Amino acid sequence: MVQYTLKPDMNFVQDLQEAGGNNLKRCFQCATCSVACPLAPTNAPYPRKEMVWASWGLKDRLMRDADLWLCHNCGNCSDLCPRGARPADMMAAARDMIYKDLTTFSVVGKWMSKASGLPWLFLVPAVIWFVIWAIRAVCKGSWFPRAADGRIVFGEIFYGDYTIDPIFIITFFGACFILYRGARKLWEMFKPEGELLVVGKQKFWICYLVSVLMDEVVTHRKFDDCEDGPVTGKVVPNRKFGHAALVYSFTILAFVTAVVALGHWGGKIIPTIEIQTPMPLTFPIKILANIGALLLLCGLGALTWRRLSLSRSNHASGFYDWYLLGILWLVAATGILSQYFRLADALQPAFVLYYFHLVFVWMLFAYLPWSKLGHFVYRTAALVYVRMYGRS
Amino acid sequence: MAGKIGVYFDVQNIGGSLDIEALAAQTSEKWGDLVPMVKTCPVLACALDEIKVDITSQKLDGVLLCGASSRADVCRLPVQVEYVNLREQCVLSYKNPDGSPPDYAAGAPEALAIMARDYVNMGVVKLQKSEMPNPAAVIGVERILVIGGGISGLTAAVEAAAMGYEVVLVEKSGQLGGAAVNIPVASPFGSNWTDKQAINLNMKISAVTGHPQITVYLNAQMEKLGGQPGEFKASVATMQGSVSVDVGAVVLTTGWKALDDKYLAPMGLGKIPLVVSAAQFGKMMLAGSVSARRIAFVLDTTLAEDAVREAAQHAVGPDKFGGADATAEEAGDKFVKEDLENIRHLAYSNAVNSVGILRLANSVCEQTNDATQAYILYKNMTVPGILERFYKTMQDRPGVMMTKADVTAIRESGGHVVVECRNTLLGMDFDLDVDMVVLPTGMVPTTAKDAVVQFDYRQGPDFPDLQLVDGFVDSNYICFPYETRRTGVYAAGCVRQPMTMDSCEEDARGAVLKAAQCVEAASHGVAVHPRSGDMSRPVFNFVRCTQCKRCTEECPFGALDDDEKGTPKLNPARCRRCGICFGACPERVISFANYNIDQIGSMIREVFVPRDFKKEGPRVLILACENDAYPALDMAGMRGNTWNPYARIIPVRCLGSVNAIWVSDAMSKGFDGIMLLGCKYGADYQCHFVKGSEICARRKENIVETLNRLGVQPERVEQLEVAIDEYDNIPDLIDGFVNRIIEMGPNPFKGM
Question: I need a surface site. Which of B16, B48, B187, B677 has the fewest CB within 10 A?
Answer without folding.
Answer: B16
